[in-house]
Amino acid sequence: MGGILVFGEIGQNGLQSITSELLAAARGLSAGSGDEVTVALLGSGADAASQDAIARGADKVYSVQDPLLEDPQADAQLGAFEAVCIEVKPSVALFGRTPVGRDLGPRLAFRHGVGVAQDCIEMTTDSATGRVVATRPVYGGNALAKVTFPGDGMQVLVVRPKAVEPLGADSSRTGEVVTFNPGLDPSIVRARLVQTVRQESEGVRLEDAVVVVGGGRGIGGAEAFEMLHELARILGGAVGASRAVCDAGWIDHSYQVGLTGKTITPDIYITVGISGASQHMAGCAASKNIVAINRDADANIFKAASFGVVGDWKNVMPSFIETVRELVNS
Ligand SMILES: Cc1cc2nc3c(=O)[nH]c(=O)nc-3n(C[C@H](O)[C@H](O)[C@H](O)COP(=O)(O)OP(=O)(O)OC[C@H]3O[C@@H](n4cnc5c(N)ncnc54)[C@H](O)[C@@H]3O)c2cc1C
Question: How far apart are CA 135 and CA 143, in angstroms?
């Protein structure tokens, strides 16, 4: 048994960023163990994304083809990945902490009678045992735990998006592409995809934005987000929010940043009326610069902020926006 197997995710534009991140994590582990890095890409987009996967760190790509994989259906995806596991016999299986990875990782671990490390943010190899040591936030993000895997069974890790920097695409890298038919039995599919509803969103994706303007409970209501959207538009950025305002229904949960929301890594994160609770910081701590606007000088957010304004956002934001507009247009 050996090797690192990545569950690859493909979108309309090819390899998803999480797959590049997992390949970078796998290469990091492989540097300690010498293990081969294999990625399983499922469905019709797999062939087109294979070379990109090699350029980003895979030694081998399984292009997994089966009619049951045409719909994004978890039972079929699990069956297909399990079939690749039987071929590859990996010692490590890596999933992204995405809706599909969160679902499949524990299910694969259960099938193998092993544990799963969820929400990993760092992974190393223990030189004495050769086993993976994973770091993961615990107690609502207030502490970090290092966990390892007893025994010699498969090590299943679910990795937080944006926790690992993807490698640059190296088109000179070479690797093998294997077309693989998992021979799925239709009876394994116990749920049926009834409808796909695409969520329309304007502008930059929150997770990819270079500038994020985040609103918290301190802004007082849903209407205030208009001003935040305006600032984000001027800066070509995206709007984010704390959980408190999402729970209050001021903005949709897809805007939530934090432990139970999205992880962002912008160059500038401008927070307005956000206190900086540890669960919020868990999703934005990797921002290069945090700018805080908060009327409480003792608010936790100022500990992480590079720049801050202590004041009521209603007084600060209009002149802040006008100054930014002038700078952008100058
Ligand atoms: C298991 C768990 C998971 C969680 N996951 C998340 C998560 O993913 N994301 C997340 O955000 N939270 C999460 N939380 C909730 C988190 O603990 C906080 O409750 C939340 O982040 C607080 O949001 P907030 O900063 O908007 O509100 P508050 O903590 O109420 O802060 C409001 C801030 O606004 C300031 N303010 C008030 N009025 C003004 C004004 N007029 N001008 C300027 N400033 C003003 C106040 O000084 C205060 O600092 C989680 C909690 C738990 C237990």
Answer: 10
Instruction: Note the pLDDT of residue 210.
Output: 95
pLDDT at 1: 56
Q: How far is the centre of ligand 1, averaged over its atoms, from the C-alpha of 134 (Å)? A: 29
Find the residues whose C-beta lies inside 6 A of ligand 1: 140, 216-218, 242-245, 256-261, 273-275, 277, 279-280, 283, 293-296, 299, 312-313
**Phi, psi (degrees; rounded to nearest 5) at 248:** -75, -10
Query: 64-123: per-residue pLDDT in tens?
Result: 999 999 988 999 999 999 999 999 999 999 999 998 999 999 999 999 999 999 999 999
Are residues 32 and 165 located together in one domain of the fold? yes
Chain segment 275-311, per-residue pLDDT in tens: 999 999 989 988 999 999 999 999 999 999 999 999 9
Q: What pTM does this model have?
A: 0.82
**What is the atom index within ligand 1 of the atom nearest the CA of 258?**
8
Residue 132 main-chain phi, psi, to 5 deg: -75, 140
Chosen domain end from 188, 222, 255? 188
Gap between the Cα atoms of 321 and 101, Å rounded: 39
Residue with the smallest CA separation from ligand 1 atom 14 is 279
Smallest CA-to-CA distance from 41 within 1, 73, 71, 84 is with 84
| Cα of 241 from ligand 1 centre, angstroms | 9
> Where residue 39 sits, what CATH number does that domain have?
3.40.50.620
Residue range of the domain that includes 251:
206-329
